[in-house]
């Protein structure tokens, strides 16, 4: 229960990708990690622990071994979740109301967002003391809501519904004449409205996370996909023992929209950081390639649990359930990176850590999407496995998972980051 409370507190402090990375950075700094900056030269002593951010929404933290690295141990999760993003000119005033002009970010379930108190958070770039400064903002109170149309005006509402983003989904902010989002943000930051030059603002549900069920077996919260994996990987990374490998925790933004940004898994962020780490230790490109060949990457993103009301949507044989342990994900089209080698390696680590393992494949007639691992391997080749935790209502604004599974992930990632993979002609040693 203490770990679940800590997870829910982490999620509450992380309403956007910017805030999730900020929360992660604070945890790393508290653990003694130094922050580095891409604009400055790096100097790294043996045993150094550091992290670097890109765009304030992605982060890579790493532990340098005392000697020359024997390999790489990498874990990746993502900081973003499906939501509504405000347009730059967001105010819509008509018919006695002020609404917000929004667009979808990611592949979201629309229905759960209706009739739910919403707040605003994100990043603002403003003029401050002759410089341009970016600051995070979170109104941290209900300021908006997307009202349903009464059933008296839509008698077919319970017979199937499609949502028109332009017509159905603009959130209500105030009555006509009320303050717009710029005024609310300026007040929260204690700045002048005219000093706000640009903004990236997102709506998020104010409903807090909770543990529930007859035996407290369920955990529900916004943004479990993928902050549950961010949290579990972070704890495993910080709690790990010693290893001769270079270990890195990678938190990428924009997974929900294809990872194609400068801070996404499809960018050069990971390879840039690794090259600079190796160069700062007096090592070169060949040393990095050798370590990659002797490494393993864990791509951590939650998996679909069997749905209690729609069990037929799951594969006939691979049917993960909440509290069943870490899920290893497979796909014949290589959209998940798992192969027999990476699955065996990770399964052995889980067995040693007393962590149960489940398997997941998409139903044969339902294609799946790409993952962080699949995209990252275009820039750095090494063995990789896709894992996650079983959850219900993925891409809802309020998702459900098992209350035991976060601890399973922490234990698995602690074992992973404490390992050392040695690939020899006779086989692989852990």
Beta content: 25-35%
Number of domains: 2
Give the distance, in angstroms, between the N- and C-terminal Cα atoms: 32 Å
Annotation, overall tally of beta strands: 22
Indicate the mean pLDDT: 95
Radius of gyration: 22 Å
Strand neighbour order, sheet with most strands: 1-2-3-13-4-14-18-16-17
Largest sheet: 9 strands, mixed
Structure, explained:
By secondary structure, the protein is of the alpha/beta class. 24% of the residues lie in helices and 29% in strands. It is built from nine helices and 22 strands. The strands form four sheets. The chain has a nine-stranded mixed sheet with strand order 1-2-3-13-4-14-18-16-17, sandwiched between helices. A hairpin with a 3-residue loop joins β2 and β3. The longest helix has 16 residues.
List the helices and strands and how they pair.
Elements: H1 2-12, H2 17-30, E1 34-36, E2 49-54, E3 58-63, E4 72-78, E5 83-94, E6 97-105, E7 118-128, E8 131-138, E9 172-175, H3 181-189, E10 196-205, E11 210-212, E12 218-221, H4 224-239, E13 246-252, H5 269-280, H6 285-293, E14 296-300, E15 303-304, E16 326-330, H7 340-352, E17 357-361, H8 372-376, E18 383-388, E19 390-392, E20 399-402, H9 405-417, E21 422-424, E22 427-429
Parallel strand pairs: 1-2, 4-13, 4-14, 14-18, 15-19, 16-17
Antiparallel strand pairs: 2-3, 3-13, 5-6, 5-10, 6-9, 7-8, 7-10, 11-12, 12-20, 16-18, 19-20, 21-22
Helix pairs in contact: 4-9, 7-9
């Amino acid at each position: 229960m203490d770990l679940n409370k800590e997870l829910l507190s982490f999620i509450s402090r992380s309403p956007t990708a910017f805030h999730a990375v900020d929360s992660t950075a604070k945890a790393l700094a508290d653990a003694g990690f130094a922050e580095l900056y891409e604009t400055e030269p790096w100097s790294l002593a043996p045993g150094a622990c550091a992290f670097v951010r890109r765009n304030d929404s992605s982060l890579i933290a790493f532990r340098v071994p005392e000697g020359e690295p024997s390999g790489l141990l990498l874990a990746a999760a993502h900081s973003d979740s499906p939501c509504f993003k405000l347009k730059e000119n967001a105010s819509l005033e008509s018919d006695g109301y002020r609404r917000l002009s929004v667009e979808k970010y990611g592949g979201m379930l629309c229905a759960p967002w209706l009739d739910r108190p919403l707040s605003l958070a994100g990043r603002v770039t403003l003029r401050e003391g002759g410089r341009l400064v970016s600051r995070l903002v979170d109104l941290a109170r209900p300021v908006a809501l997307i009202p349903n149309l009464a059933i008296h005006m839509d008698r077919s509402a319970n017979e199937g519904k499609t949502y028109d983003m332009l017509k159905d989904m603009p959130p209500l902010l105030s009555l006509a004449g009320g303050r717009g989002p710029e005024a609310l943000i300026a007040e929260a930051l204690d700045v002048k409205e005219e000093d706000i030059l640009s903004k990236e603002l997102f709506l998020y549900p104010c409903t807090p996370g909770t543990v529930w069920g007859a035996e407290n077996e369920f955990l529900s919260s916004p943004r479990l996909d993928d902050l549950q994996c961010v949290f579990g990987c972070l704890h495993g990374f910080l709690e790990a023992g010693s290893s001769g490998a270079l270990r890195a925790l990678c938190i990428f933004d924009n997974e929900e929209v294809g990872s194609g940004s400068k801070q996404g898994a499809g960018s050069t962020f990971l390879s840039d950081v690794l090259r600079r780490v190796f160069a700062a230790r007096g090592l070169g490109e060949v040393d990095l390639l050798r370590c990659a060949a002797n490494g393993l990457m864990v791509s951590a993103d939650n998996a679909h649990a069997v749905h209690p009301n729609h069990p037929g949507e799951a594969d006939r044989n691979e049917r993960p359930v909440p509290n069943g342990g870490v899920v290893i994900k497979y796909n014949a089209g290589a959209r998940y990176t798992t192969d027999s080698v990476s699955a065996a390696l990770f399964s052995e680590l889980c067995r040693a850590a007393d962590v149960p393992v489940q398997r997941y494949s998409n139903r044969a007639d339902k294609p799946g999407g790409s993952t962080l691992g699949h995209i990252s391997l275009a820039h750095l080749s090494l063995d990789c496995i896709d894992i996650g935790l079983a959850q219900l209502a993925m891409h809802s604004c309020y998702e459900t998972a098992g209350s035991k599974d976060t601890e399973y992930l922490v234990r698995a990632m602690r074992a992973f980051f404490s390992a050392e993979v040695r690939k020899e002609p006779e086989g692989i040693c852990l």
